[in-house]
Amino acid sequence: MRSRPPEGKTTCTMASQHPVAVVLSCHYNGLSIIQELGSRGIPCIAMDSERSVGTFSRYARFVRCPNPAEDESGFLDFLVRYCAAGFERKPMLIPTNDEWAVALSRGKERLSDVAIPCVGDWPAVERVIEKDRFYEVAAERSYPVPETWGPEEIGALTADKFPIVAKPRFRRNASDGELLPILEMMDRLRLTILDDETDLARFLAIEEAAIPHLIFQELVHGASDSMYTVGMYVDGDREPWAIFTGRKVRGYPAYMGDCTVGEVREVPEELVELSIKMAHDFGLSGILEFEYKQDSRSGDFRLIEVNPRSWSWIGITPTCGVSLPLLAYQDLALGQMKPVIPLRGVKRDESVRYYKAISDFINSTIRYRRNF
After folding, report:
1. What is the Cα–Cα distance from 131 to 139, expressed in whole angstroms?
2. Distances (CA, A) of 327 to 21, 195, 231, 340, 363
3. Which of 92, 122, 160, 297 has CB atoms 3.0–4.6 Å from 116's, for a disulfide?
């Protein structure tokens, strides 16, 4: 589906002399960005360490690169060499997953000589990537995060604190290979519900090697459809250009999985204001996602995480009138003026849904029957 331009903008065809957009990691997230920018005539490179779906888009040329999860140094060396050669103007770099955002952020000063990284500065990105640090700082500043404990604290938990969940300090990260065994464990232990002290003791015994890399939290009740997104593009002055709000409809696994169906949806205005405040407070910039979960029992919203890069269903934003990838390009690559007031992606008179149609069909007809 071809998307329409943001409100107040007109569709434009970018000549080839305009900066190239290099999209890093090209699964459905990257594919959506390539389709949005490429369909407007913006030249795109699909850069990845493997041939995922976005690398086959007719709007981009595939370039293979090292995987920053296993060779961060090699990836940055490759990217600097690539960007320094063959471009009339600095290309714009858009990460779509944590390890790519981490590598770009850590190497931002070096990369800025030859490219335009669409990512926040490393102190800000580090603060939200490392979940134990994020939850500690967020709690100190009275953000509505779940109560959180480190491995050294869980032995003192009383029965009334259960059920709890075990989750990784980070799921994905950049490294020169030393984190690979940990990343495999973290993907497997993405979220584990522990109903009582017996469950916890069994989990600690079985997953002993993983425990130092986990945090433990109060359970926020509800499935994927309790997850809400506040997405925005924030410039280098920490000012938002546009804001999208939406809700997951279905994910897999059903309780906490990646989005297969999402929809535009209004959220309480205090969540939007809280997200803007947090971007300022943490010093974040670029394309951001603030993810909240509404407890199905209490109705309270809890801040689950902040993603310092685009998220898996960002492809819905152009159709909602707030094309975050295009706005990021207009700011960083073209130096255009920001809107007088932030654009808003909520359409009171419209319903917009984003589907990963094949995945959702398989989930809905087969997988959910097994465990949900």
Report:
1. 12
2. 13, 45, 13, 14, 33
3. 92
Dist. CA 138–CA 82, nearest whole Å = 38
**How far apart, in Å, do the first and last CA atoms of the chain sit?**
31
- What domains are there in the chain, each with its CATH number? 21-125 (3.40.50.20), 147-218 (3.30.1490), 222-371 (3.30.470.20)
Tens digit of pLDDT at every position of the chain (372 positions): 333 333 333 333 334 578 999 999 999 999 999 999 999 999 999 999 999 999 999 999 999 999 999 999 999 999 999 999 979 999 999 999 999 999 999 999 999 999 999 999 999 999 999 999 999 999 999 999 999 999 999 999 999 999 999 999 998 899 999 998 998 888 889 889 999 999 999 999 999 999 999 999 999 999 999 999 999 999 999 999 999 999 999 998 887 788 999 999 999 999 999 999 999 999 999 999 999 999 999 999 999 999 999 999 999 999 999 999 999 999 999 999 999 899 997 665 668 999 999 999 999 999 888 877
Q: Annotate 312-328 with b (16+ C-beta within 10 A) or e (fewer).
A: bbbbbbbbbbbbbbbbb
The phi, psi pair for 175, rounded to 5°, reads: -165, 175
